């Protein structure tokens, strides 16, 4: 859950939001514009990553875990858990 949050959201916030500190009297327009830009960029990056994680959950779990005492049933259950967890990961990045 921390991976998309750390890689995408915090990195974008670090780059975009310091520029939105508008001097007093200039209005909140730049803050809203920068926040919309940041949200748009997070959606563009995180949604495809979530879809890829859902689609590749099977091959990922087989590659990482299918050895030793981790049998087919365990791989399938871990794959289902990763599929269910992927949308929560993208939600944490927002």
What brief labels describe this structure?
single chain, 94 residues, mainly alpha, 4 helices, 77% helix, elongated
**Average of the residue pLDDT scores:** 77
Written as H for each helix and E for each strand, in order along the chain, the element string is: HHHH
Alpha-beta classification: mainly alpha
Tell me how many strands there are. Answer: 0
Helicity level: over 70%
Largest sheet: none
Strand content: under 5%
Q: How does this structure look, described?
A:
By secondary structure, the chain is mainly α. Helix content is 77%, strand content 0%. It is built from four helices and no strands. The chain has helices spanning 2-16, 29-55, 57-65, 72-92. Helix 1 packs antiparallel against helix 2 (29-55), helix 2 (29-55) runs antiparallel to helix 4 and helix 3 packs across helix 4. The mean pLDDT is 77.
Summarize the helices and strands and which ones pair or pack.
Elements: H1 2-16, H2 29-55, H3 57-65, H4 72-92
Helix pairs in contact: 1-2, 2-4, 3-4
Write a concise synopsis of the structure shown:
The chain has 94 residues and is mainly alpha-helical.
